[in-house]
Design goal:
Radius of gyration: 42 Å
Strand content: 25-35%
CATH class of one domain: Mainly Beta
Number of strands: 45
Number of helices: 5
Shape: flat
Structural class: mainly beta
Distance between the termini: 126 Å
CATH topology of one domain: Jelly Rolls
Oligomer: single chain
Length: about 750
């Protein structure tokens, strides 16, 4: 009998478990062998977090950098443990997004790019493109484009064009210079200076290669403009300065016989009408080899180039404010035009070099760098408040360097918008009321402004004395404007747009303690305002003007045009500045201390205990008869009666129980309104104690101190007594009384007896 031959074939590696009847079960059997912890398993479902993740472009070393990066916490015993459920990378990204919001600072997605086929180009049109874009995206990267074929696979051919549009957001306050280097025709538009909304968003600064010109029987692209030259050299003058937007570096120039054949444009004035040429035999303009051999006047001159020839142009913006968005638009296109016979003409650019290289110089004196996409934002980018994260909202509502406005933070009338300010440490207020006009005048400079912009440029190249926060006064400066940022010896930005285009003297005033500025005059103790009003002024503030007496205090009278001064003085009409008289103004009691429910009286002269008549600086209104007067110097239930008019005296229903000092503040209020002493904090805060050089001591009238509720807190206590023997505690001593002492270390009892 023949022997049987058995052939055994196991699971073949290259089939990746496909030869098993149950591939999932087979995988589970393999994975579970990797776990040796009792009660734990390793199965196929545990691989779900990494399914559909591909290793393309990643090395094992890069994977190893991720290893051990899980989020852990420290337990009470000092050991680390994983969070359960685990905190994923997506969790972290989501948390970051909540914190930062939709990025609006160097977090752009690139300009909106619209692609057009050749049939949608008409260089005679202002907008160049006449049809509908066949494709739209945000592809930009670094603004460096080079094409060996179509501008996009969906294009009909190598011709066509692109329009990039959106917003540029600078990260520093400065001018910016945009550089456009291309081998085709191009335009560049930037937001009009002073633009707020509506039409005229853009001002065109580049428009090159949009007019066909005939040169030697061939069609090139550029323009023909009237120019002149005053002498031999390298400079020619455009008769119409605005035509400079059509002239680019690298264009060939032909025209009058005084211009050497083959000369090219070397530079173009941005603000004037000068074009500098270069002789074809030199690298840069050379007076010894001039491109212009002699003078000529008002002669047609053609500037041109062919597709495939590099031309470039640059534009330096006005001063841009950091983190503010500005509309921007670039165009690139291969020309298409109508001939004299009204037939469409185009060129074949397939064999030509085609590129568009856009760069930026972000600040004055800086280097030219790539204009990266993260500083550019698409047209539909979400800049709404809803897209802001926690941090941008925090910054928007923070008190930045230079302080707040005169109204402070929070809402003075709407309790829903109150802002709580809390400090765990002492508040150090270093404010010292100013004494003279020179003390508050930080600087005075000639400044140039452009209406609708927040920029003040200094022709004298000096910002000496100016501080962030300083108030600015001058022609075209809205009232209340303050310095927001400073570019040393160049310009400043204020927090309002200017209203005139001119150069005027600007005065910069110290913002610390500033309340308002008006125009007015003084006579005796009366200050009269001729331009402005008394809104915002309060008693106790000080007035400063040219020639004013130090610490001239004011008292409001209810008038909209007058206040009372102290000291008496006389000045003609001039600028009057009002400042706070104290470093801290507390408005928290304004509603609690309304005049109809509480009044303050100021004592004139010293008054001994046991007196019934007080002289005050100003008599309260008739309606205050019968109001209660409160304080440590008065017995409970003491009311006042107004004496005869003109005496400034009041009579008390009960005699004073403590001495009063000259200038003491006293609170009066109807009995039904309760204690309103908070409205008039006393000048002398020692009662019921007597002040001494060593500190406070109990008075002879009140030798015993009794505390009904509350706590007495102190760092150290010393008890001095006479006629009492103080002995140490010994066994057998008893006491049925004690003084509780609460300390951070616990509660203690000081034994006592009667």
């Amino acid at each position: 009998m023949a022997r049987k031959i058995f052939k055994r074939v196991g699971v073949r590696r290259e089939r990746n478990l496909s030869d098993l009847s149950d591939t999932k079960e087979g995988l589970n059997n393999l994975l579970d062998t990797l776990i040796d912890e009792a009660g734990n398993t390793f199965i196929s479902e545990d691989l779900d977090p990494i399914r559909n993740i591909y290793a393309e472009g990643l090395t094992s070393g890069q994977y190893q950098k991720v290893a051990g990066s899980r989020t852990q916490y420290t337990k009470s015993n000092g050991s680390n443990a994983d969070f359960k459920p685990p905190i994923t990378y997506q969790n972290r990204l989501d948390k970051f997004k909540v914190f930062s919001g939709t990025p609006r600072l160097a977090g752009g997605n690139g300009l909106t790019a619209r692609y057009y086929n050749n049939d949608d180009i008409d260089i005679s049109q202002v907008g160049i493109f006449t049809g509908t874009p066949f494709q739209q995206d945000n592809f930009w990267e670094a603004g460096n484009f080079a094409w060996t074929g179509k501008i996009t696979p969906m294009s009909d051919n190598s011709n066509g064009g692109i329009e990039w549009e959106g917003y540029y957001i600078p990260t520093i306050t400065s001018k910016a210079t945009f550089h456009y280097d291309t081998t085709a025709s191009f335009t560049f538009d930037f937001q009009t200076e002073g633009y707020t909304s509506g039409i005229n968003t853009y001002t065109e600064h580049m428009r090159v290669g949009t007019v066909p010109v005939s040169v030697g029987g061939n069609v090139s692209f550029g323009g023909t403009f009237t120019t002149s030259a005053s002498a031999a050299g390298n400079n020619i003058i455009l008769a119409t300065a605005s035509k400079r937007v059509n002239v680019a570096v690298g264009q060939t120039v032909t025209g009058p016989g005084n211009i050497v054949s083959g000369s090219t444009v070397y530079s173009v004035s941005q603000d004037g009408n000068t074009v500098t040429l270069k002789h074809p035999d030199v690298v840069e303009p050379d007076a010894g080899t001039p491109a212009v051999t002699g003078s000529y006047s008002n002669t047609n001159t053609t500037f041109y180039s062919d597709t495939g020839v590099t031309t470039k142009k640059e534009y330096t913006t006005y001063v841009l404010e950091e983190y503010k968005r500005y509309a921007i638009r670039f165009r690139y296109f291969v020309p298409r035009w109508r001939s004299s016979a009204s037939t469409w003409q185009e060129i074949d650019s397939d064999s030509q070099e085609r590129k568009a290289d856009i760069n930026i110089q972000k600040n004055i004196g800086g280097t030219v760098t790539e204009l990266r996409y993260n500083h550019l934002f698409s047209r539909d980018y979400d800049f709404s408040d809803d897209a802001k994260g926690d941090f941008p909202i925090f910054v928007d509502n923070s008190v930045l360097f230079g302080g707040t406005t005169t109204s402070g933070i929070g809402n003075a009338t709407n309790s829903a918008e109150y802002v709580k300010v809390k400090s765990t440490k002492k508040i150090d207020i270093k404010y010292i009321p100013p004494t003279s006009l020179s003390a508050i005048t930080k600087a005075s400079h000639n400044g140039a402004t452009v209406s609708g912009t927040p920029v003040i440029i200094f022709p004298n190249k000096s910002t000496t004395g100016i501080e962030i926060g300083s108030y600015v006064f001058g022609t075209g400066i809205p009232y209340g404007s303050r310095v927001k940022s400073i570019v040393i010896n160049e310009y400043v930005l204020i927090d309002n747009n200017t209203t005139s285009t001119a150069t005027n003297t600007m005065t910069f005033i110290d913002h610390r303690g500033f309340v308002k500025r008006v125009t007015g005059s003084t006579s005796g103790t009366t200050l009269t305002i001729s331009n402005g009003n008394t809104t915002g002024l309060k008693s106790g503030m000080i007035m400063i003007c040219n020639g004013s007496t130090k610490y001239t205090g004011i008292t409001t009278t209810g008038s909209t045009t007058q206040v009372t001064m102290s000291e008496s003085q006389g000045h003609g009409t001039r600028a009057l500045y009002f400042y706070e008289g104290k470093g801290l103004r507390n408005d928290s009691l304004l509603q609690f201390c309304q005049p109809q429910i509480a009044r303050c009286l100021s004592l004139v002269g010293n008054v001994a205990a046991g007196s019934n008549v007080l002289t005050v600086s100003s008599i309260p209104p008739e309606a205050s008869n019968g109001w209660e007067i409160r304080g440590f110097q008065f017995d409970s239930g003491t009311t006042i009666t107004l004496n005869s008019p003109g005496t400034n005296q009041i009579t008390l229903s009960k005699a004073t129980i403590n001495d009063l000092l000259n200038g003491e503040s006293m609170s009066i209020a109807p009995a039904a309104n309760g204690d309103r002493t908070l409205c008039c904090p006393p000048v002398d805060t020692s009662p019921p104690f007597t002040p001494t050089e060593e500190g406070l001591e109990t008075s002879t009238n009140f030798p015993n101190l009794k505390i009904n509720g509350g706590n007495v807190r102190f760092d150290e206590i010393n008890v001095t007594s006479t006629g009492i023997n103080v002995v140490n505690y010994t066994d057998g001593d008893t006491s049925n009384r004690y003084i509780p002492i609460n300390t951070p270390s616990g509660d203690f009892k000081l034994l006592a007896t009667t």
